[in-house]
């Protein structure tokens, strides 16, 4: 994998010049020995694994039945969380104009709800990638239970490990932007541009800061999240994300703020977790329960006060000269979702 290849070069130099009795085991299970007979092993989880490998049962206590862990889309005031998450999945896939038989990639697929929806309701051939072993195993099980193994596959890998060129008609990246880091934004959007077919579309759904300088959230909120919830996470301002998309060769077609939708989503999650405090503490302990409760309630407040935003940005390749085939208005985004089956 991308990180492992670079790490291996460093280890080879150490083994050659100054071997030490150490073994490093990564989140993926791969081991790197700094000598021929190491007697000390250090395990290094990924930042993604730190957050998402808590427990599937824990997340099930506050998420919807499909385990969608991203901003819901409330089309009506009385929408339940389940309904609003279904609306969100369709909102993404409608924006992408996903068609039967198209190859669809979901970068950071969560528990697989979007790729399952893309295959089952839109007839796409869907691929998802993640760094979370828990999510990977759960998604494999969900795909098998849905009878969609011929249309869906999931991979436990980094987006930088996908080496195809123009392999996908449509790409979605949901909740990945905040994990990429500022320094890797060019690499991230460059990889998306390379993977996307010339006539393809990509939608990025991610949290952004409202600080024009992309500063960390104040009042200690940013430090709390970095230490206890999302290590190494960084929130870019929308302008920075758009700049890097453009540098990578993507043209922005549409941008939509879902900030108020995320405030409501986080509030529902917080309330549901609080209602399930006893089983949550049984699964992860009081300390982690309290961290997540503060995190979710704090996010609900932060989104409601405009400290952060949630933006969906739809792009094509900048050299897509057949773009006139794309609708001139946004009306198509709100048409009823297709019923493939």
Could you explain the architecture of this structure?
This protein has helices spanning 2-17, 47-52, 56-60, 81-95, 113-122, 133-146, 177-180, 185-195, 221-228, 238-247, 259-275, 277-304; strands at 22-26, 31-33, 40-44, 103-107, 125-130, 152-156, 168-174, 196-209, 250-257, 308-317. The protein is an alpha/beta fold and 341 residues long. It folds into 2 domains: 2-44, no CATH class; 49-334, Rossmann fold, CATH 3.40.50. It has a 7-stranded mixed beta sheet with strand order 6-5-4-7-8-10-9, sandwiched between helices. The model has no long low-confidence stretch (mean pLDDT 86). The protein contains 12 helices and 10 strands.
SSE layout and pairing:
Elements: H1 2-17, E1 22-26, E2 31-33, E3 40-44, H2 47-52, H3 56-60, H4 81-95, E4 103-107, H5 113-122, E5 125-130, H6 133-146, E6 152-156, E7 168-174, H7 177-180, H8 185-195, E8 196-209, H9 221-228, H10 238-247, E9 250-257, H11 259-275, H12 277-304, E10 308-317
Parallel strand pairs: 1-3, 4-5, 4-7, 5-6, 7-8
Antiparallel strand pairs: 1-2, 8-10, 9-10
Quick structural summary:
This protein has 341 residues and is of the alpha/beta class.
Major sheet size, sense and barrel closure? 7 strands, mixed
Low-confidence stretches: none
Portion of residues in helices? 40-55%
CA-to-CA gap between the ends? 37 Å
Question: What is the count of DSSP helices, taking H or I runs of 4+ residues?
Answer: 12
Beta-strand content bin: 15-25%
Strand order of the largest sheet: 6-5-4-7-8-10-9
Q: What count of domains describes the coordinates?
A: 2
**Average pLDDT for all residues:** 86
Shape: globular
Radius of gyration: 21 Å
CATH superfamily of the largest domain: Vaccinia Virus protein VP39
Architecture of the largest domain, according to CATH? Answer: 3-Layer(aba) Sandwich
- Output the CATH class name of the largest domain: Alpha Beta
**Beta strand count:** 10
| SSE topology string | HEEEHHHEHEHEEHHEHHEHHE
């Amino acid at each position: 994998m991308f990180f492992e290849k670079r790490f291996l070069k460093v280890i080879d130099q150490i083994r050659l010049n100054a071997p030490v009795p150490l073994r490093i085991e990564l989140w993926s299970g791969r081991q790197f020995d700094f000598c021929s007979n190491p007697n000390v092993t250090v395990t290094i989880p990924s930042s993604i694994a730190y957050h998402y490998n808590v427990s599937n049962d824990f997340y099930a206590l506050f998420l919807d039945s499909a385990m969608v862990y991203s901003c819901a889309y409330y089309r009506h005031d009385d929408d339940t969380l389940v309904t609003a998450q279904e609306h969100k999945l369709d909102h993404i896939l409608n924006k992408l104009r996903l068609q039967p038989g198209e190859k669809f990639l979901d970068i950071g697929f969560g528990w697989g709800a979007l790729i399952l929806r893309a295959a089952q309701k839109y007839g796409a051939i869907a691929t998802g990638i993640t760094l979370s072993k828990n999510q990977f195993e759960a998604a494999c099980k969900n795909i098998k239970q849905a009878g969609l193994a011929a249309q869906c596959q999931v991979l436990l890998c980094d987006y930088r490990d996908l080496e195809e060129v123009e392999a996908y008609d449509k790409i979605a990246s949901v909740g990945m932007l905040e994990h990429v880091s500022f320094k890797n934004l060019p690499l991230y959007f460059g990889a998306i541009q390379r993977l996307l077919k010339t006539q393809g579309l990509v939608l990025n759904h991610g949290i952004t800061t409202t600080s024009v300088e992309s500063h960390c959230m104040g009042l200690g909120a940013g430090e709390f999240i970095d230490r206890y919830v999302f290590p190494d996470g960084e929130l870019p301002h929308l302008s920075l994300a758009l700049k890097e998309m453009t540098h990578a060769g993507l043209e922005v077609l549409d941008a939509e703020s879902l900030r108020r939708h995320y405030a409501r989503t986080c509030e529902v999650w917080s309330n549901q977790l609080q209602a399930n405090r006893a089983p949550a503490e049984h699964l992860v302990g009081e300390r982690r329960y309290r961290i997540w409760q503060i995190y979710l309630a704090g996010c609900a407040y932060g989104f409601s006060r405009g400290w952060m935003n949630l933006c969906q940005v739809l792009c094509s390749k900048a050299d897509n000269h057949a773009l006139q085939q794309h609708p001139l208005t946004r009306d198509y985004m709100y048409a009823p979702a297709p019923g493939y089956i």
